[in-house]
Amino acid sequence: MNARHIFVLIMLISIRVDDLYSDGPIGYPRFMQGPMVGVVTPDEIIIWGRLNGAFSGQIEYDASKNFIHSSTLALSATKEEDYVLKWKLKGLQPDTRYYYRFKVEGKTPRYQRDLPPFYTKTAPPAGKKGRFSIAFGSGIRYQLDRKQEIWSTVLRFQPDLFFWLGDNIYGDTQDPEMLAEEWRRQRDVATLQPVLHSIPQLALWDDHDFGLNDYDRRHPRKADALKVFKHYWANPAYGLPGTPGVFFKYTYGGVDFFFIDCRYYRDPNIEPDHSRKTLLGEGQREWLQNALVHSKAPFKVILSGTGWSKVKGPGGDSWASYLYERDALFDFIRDNEITGVILLSGDTHVGELNAIPWSEKGGYDFYDLVSSPMAQTPDQTRPDRKPEIRIRRVFTREDNFGLVEFDLTDEPVLRFNLIGTSGREAWKPFVIRADELVNGVTSWKNK
User: Fold this and answer.
1) Model pTM?
2) Which domains, from first to last, does the chain contain?
3) pLDDT tens figures, 229-254
4) Cross-strand bridge partners of residue 101
């Protein structure tokens, strides 16, 4: 066989191999980003993915890793939706591991053909009192940290859920296409992949993924920013009809989580604080109050992209510039005898655990559990800022995420700590019982 014959044979083999994965001019239909697990309930799972064109994507799923009794769901991607698909797997069993795998245009994507099936788990059944954990974080700057080793540590701790509390990207733009580009870059981080594939992800935004630094309701393209955000997340809801935003309520394991939107309706930070100045906006504020009143959960967790304490002072980019509205919310919780409220936040570029002592006003003490940053250098210049009460010293040793462990098997209790990239806990753990979050109880002095 001469050289010409060998060349022709190689070309024929190449063509046959390409025919397995290519269909003429469409190239190789495949995933560009994903898959990512979104919201899970006792009987549903949403899986997010983005394809490389207007193709059909099929997900096969089963409680057996051998796919003995599998089901298949197909969706078609469109350019108008940025080729994003969200498969909603229905009719599932609670607290059950499900395996899933994909085809695009009826074929296993060539870049995934050697991967084992992915898997995740549905939520516990409603009413079940058990144990579970959530991890959360903020301040993820791809431009400064493209490796993001923190995600390997998150995976090691195996939380049941992960919550993104804003500055999830540093888009810093009004251009929605550039925001989308930053979401894609962040979604491609290698260490993040196994976390996305297996742990349910929910998110809210803060200024840098909403638009520009300290942006507020005056953002001229905030509706476009919201459209992009909705493309790249699989939350259970986005605001209300007639009241757009990223806020929603989510229940898991007997705990109610209230994700709030701190940007879409926010008055300027520098405006003098007064009774009509708002961070939430009227519609969102009424939604939150009503949802809290009707919640029967032992713990009611309010998640904010901006810090709850007064640590940044008047004019700062936090609730410190909206104390009339914040304090009115705390009074509402007291006056309506709403128990068990815990606060989570991010943004500060340091890890914190602060208390707002509402027991002095006839209520109970509110605790702000703060994780920041996850993927950039912690701020060493501002540890001496003064909140109402510091329960733990500011944590600046390394990037971190928050870990909250709930135990509802007996007397409901939660345990919180920050976990550094190294895997070490930041402090002595913070532990609080639900019966300490009741009007008339002072707890911070023992914490």
Assistant:
1) 0.94
2) 24-121 (2.60.40.380), 131-446 (3.60.21.70)
3) 999 999 999 999 999 999 999 999 99
4) 60
